[in-house]
Write a structure and sequence with these properties.
It contains 17 helices and 16 strands. With 610 residues, it is of the alpha+beta class. Strands 3, 4, 7, 8, 9 and 13 form a six-stranded antiparallel beta sheet that branches. Helix 1 packs parallel to helix 4, helix 7 runs antiparallel to helix 8 and helix 13 runs antiparallel to helix 14. The radius of gyration is 26 Å and the shape is globular. It starts with 14 loop residues before the first helix and ends in a 5-residue tail after the last strand.
Length: 610
């Protein structure tokens, strides 16, 4: 038993910090609304001057240029904040409060920035600039661009995750995992803002005449680079979901890793190739690599926190470029997406298999192939189809409504099926582990485990020693000695604030044996230290990884809470898809390519009227 020590609170945020955060959001929103009202009424020229400058640089109307720039900068700030925040949780554990973690300020500023960008996109359109041909008419606001509405939707969804996260902690305890339900809300809202940015920029380019068919004029370089940077940014965002594998503290089955890699890379790289032409996938890859390397260096080398590994996606990008190299390949986008996805799910899987064994903390082994390869193929093909549909929507070249819906629903359903399979796991354990310790000093020891039955770790996805939250991260792959006996290859920390355990993931089971777990009075948890030669029954992995979670929560609370979050996520993604679909219909015969103009009240101004 360990001596109790002081520890951060494990429930909801302190009321004073909630009040401060609420006050900040209220005041900044009031200031922003004041500026927007001043701009619309003509009382203030400040916002108009900034908007006009952004329009000159971006070569598109200010209602698209300024919000896109604000949202892009805000997302980069949020990316840095999220990476830093995860590293803090891995190295030190939970927060004393939302305002006690410096990384949270970057996340909050980033999310509020995209909220502000959405308000800008809905408020800046005026009669002085061409409007979006796909604008949505709303009372008072008039005609607003689809991208602006989607941007506000994404940011609101992400920001809603903050108060819900506090409620979640009060009901169920803190879930120190990237994949907590409310964490998924915040990440998904931020990441999918990149789709809203692309929709808004496309509307602006169409309104400026930069995407009209038959125009032989060369487009400005910033317009040509836009889809490359946007798809690279989307690849960065979707890769955030793989973070637990990048740091090596995955709390879910390893089959998720190839699923996420194949799905995200095929969607983003296929979309980049179709939108930007030859070299588009490579360009998106380069932007991804540069941005992620810079952020990881800031967190790991400058700040001094645990640095994550990262997938390269090089082979995946080459696969997409190879499929699209043949003349006319882009004219059949669904075919390009399917073949690219198939190659990503096979050749890309093999490349990532090799890369994980070179640079990843949780390398893939042959045990993963039987389930991981078909999962990657399904995810790759589904992602390729969705990437082709996304590009078609932004290019105004979606298939007819019925085939497009069937393709989108089919691809989404395929991803849901493989995700449900990956999510399914067993929490039952009949495995026992006998722990032997060989101390190198009072605070460190080599750990040997004898598993019963001896086959418990044979053919496992991973057999690791993990020590974390002791102001650092240690991952050590155990070596097989004989029979059911495995041992660490270096001494693990068994002192201070460390949480040290042995982890075995085999098939659908994820099991842990505790070696040293510090006391945590706030949970409360008395602490644990395995005695030399002691035997214990291994438990479900998250029992040790998420000690803060309340174990006595009734199912009638937990199940509906998770279902509500999933329902909200489904509605959110559906609305995004409808927004992209609104852009994706080509003009009907006889329709003018000129975008309509609207008054401030949203009334259509007849063609030729002043």
């Amino acid at each position: 038993m360990l001596i109790a020590a002081s520890s951060p609170p494990a429930g909801g945020a302190p009321i004073d910090q909630v009040a401060i955060a609420t006050g900040f959001a209220t005041i900044t929103t009031a200031v922003l609304l004041y500026l927007l009202q001043g701009h619309r009424s003509g009382r203030s020229s400040l916002l108009g001057s900034v908007a006009a400058f952004s329009a000159r640089v971006g070569r598109i109307p200010s209602w698209a240029a300024l919000p896109s720039a604000v949202a892009t900068g805000s997302l980069l700030v949020a990316l840095f904040g999220v990476t830093w925040d995860v590293s803090i949780h891995i190295d030190k554990g939970r927060d004393p409060g939302p305002l006690a973690n410096p990384a949270h300020y970057f996340i909050l500023v980033g999310l509020y920035g995209i909220f502000a960008a959405g308000l800008l996109a809905m408020s800046l359109p005026s009669d002085d600039e061409p409007r979006s041909a796909t604008a949505i008419n709303l009372p008072i606001l008039g005609a607003i661009p689809v991208g602006g509405a989607l941007m506000l939707l994404c940011s609101s969804f992400a920001l809603l995750g903050f108060p819900l996260d506090d409620v979640w902690h009060r009901l169920f305890g803190q879930d120190v995992t990237l994949w907590g339900p409310t964490h998924i809300m915040m990440i998904a809202g931020a990441v999918l803002t990149i789709i809203a940015i692309q929709v808004l920029e496309t509307e602006g380019q169409r309104a400026a005449g930069l995407e009209r068919r038959g125009s032989g004029e060369p487009r400005p370089w910033i317009v040509r680079m836009s889809p490359i940077l946007a798809c690279g940014g989307l690849l960065i965002g979707l890769s955030v979901f793989q973070g637990e594998f990048d740091w090596g503290v995955a709390q879910f089955r390893q089959v998720w890793h190839p699923l996420l890699l194949a799905g995200s890379s095929s969607l983003c790289l296929v979309a980049a190739r179709l939108r930007a032409g030859r070299g588009g996938a490579i360009g998106a890859l380069v932007f991804y690599l540069v941005a992620v390397l810079i952020v990881n260096a800031l967190v790991g080398d400058v700040i001094g926190r645990s640095k994550p590994a990262m997938p390269l996606y090089v082979v995946e990008a080459l696969c997409v470029e190879a499929v699209g190299w043949r003349r006319g390949a882009a004219a059949r986008p669904i075919r390009l997406g399917v073949i690219s996805g198939l190659l990503i799910g096979t050749v890309g899987f093999a490349a990532e298999y090799a890369w994980t064994n070179i640079a990843m903390p949780l390398p893939w082994h042959t045990a993963l192939i039987a389930e991981g390869l078909p999962t990657a193929i399904v995810a790759g093909v589904a992602g390729g189809i969705l990437g082709a549909l996304f590009a078609g929507g932004l290019r105004g070249e979606l298939p007819a409504p019925r085939p497009a819906r069937l393709l989108a629903i089919g691809a989404a359903a395929a991803l849901l099926v493989v995700s449900a399979n990956a999510l399914f796991h067993s929490e039952q354990s009949r495995v026992r582990a006998t722990i032997a310790l060989r101390h190198t000093d009072p605070g460190h020891a080599y750990v040997t485990a004898k598993f019963d039955p001896p086959s418990a770790a044979k053919g496992a996805e991973w057999v690791d020693g993990l020590a974390w939250q002791g102001d650092g991260l240690v991952i050590n792959h155990l070596e097989h000695v004989a029979g059911g006996t495995w041992r660490t290859t270096k001494a693990l920390p068994l002192t201070g604030d460390w949480k040290t355990m042995l982890r075995v993931h085999k098939g659908r089971s994820l099991l842990s044996a505790g070696v040293y777990l510090r006391a945590d009075p706030a949970i409360p948890f008395k602490g644990f230290r395995a005695a030399n030669g002691s035997t214990q029954t291994m438990v479900y992995d998250q029992h040790f990884l998420q000690l803060e979670r309340k174990r006595n929560t009734p199912a009638y609370l937990w199940t509906p809470a998770v279902a509500i979050v999933l329902l909200m996520l489904g509605v959110f993604i559906t609305l995004l898809a409808l927004g992209v679909g609104r852009l994706g219909r080509p003009p009907r015969p006889g329709e003018t390519a000129e975008p309509p103009r609207f008054s401030r009240t949203g009334k259509l101004i007849p063609a030729g009227a002043r």
